[in-house]
Specification:
This protein has 5 helices and no strands. With 139 residues, it is mainly α. The protein has one domain. α1 packs across α2, α1 packs across α4 and α4 (69-87) crosses α5 (103-137).
Length: 139
């Protein structure tokens, strides 16, 4: 993978993480009893891991689960993945003698490809769940 493709996939991977987190907060705000705007404001300083746990509990008790168990399992890992792509990935290959032709770069590229594909899938699933929750819980 050339570095320009890497940068595009890297940027999209981080974008997926940010949008997924925002959509999860929207779903929770819609489903939780009370004013949607107030519910959302209360989540401002809530971590991704906390939102995932809170939403999963609420979602499972709703009678109609919006997000699959498989996606919830992945969402639990997403914080770690996001932190890797934001804070670590370039260090894993840039200090090599020839960074862009190194085995380390190839390993990071392979990991990026896998995470990007999975995050894109979860992103689409969570977006659909948000739209469905909005249709059902909009008040």
């Amino acid at each position: 993978m050339d570095i320009n493709t890497f940068k595009i996939l890297h940027s999209e991977t981080i974008e997926f993480c940010q949008i997924i987190e925002g959509d999860l907060k929207c779903i929770y705000s819609l489903m939780h009893v009370g004013d949607i705007g107030e519910n959302h404001s209360k989540l401002e300083k809530t971590t991704l891991g906390q939102v995932v746990s809170m939403l999963k509990e609420l979602d499972k008790s709703s009678g109609e689960q919006f997000i699959s168990d498989g996606d919830y399992n992945f969402l639990k890992q997403m914080t770690e993945k996001r932190n890797y792509w934001c804070h670590v990935c370039y260090r894993d290959f840039m200090y090599e003698e020839k960074p862009l032709t190194s085995l380390a770069y190839k390993k990071v590229c392979d990991r990026l490809q896998r995470d990007h594909e999975r995050l894109e899938s979860v992103y689409k699933n969570v977006e659909q769940a948000k739209l469905k929750a909005n249709r059902i819980y909009r008040r």
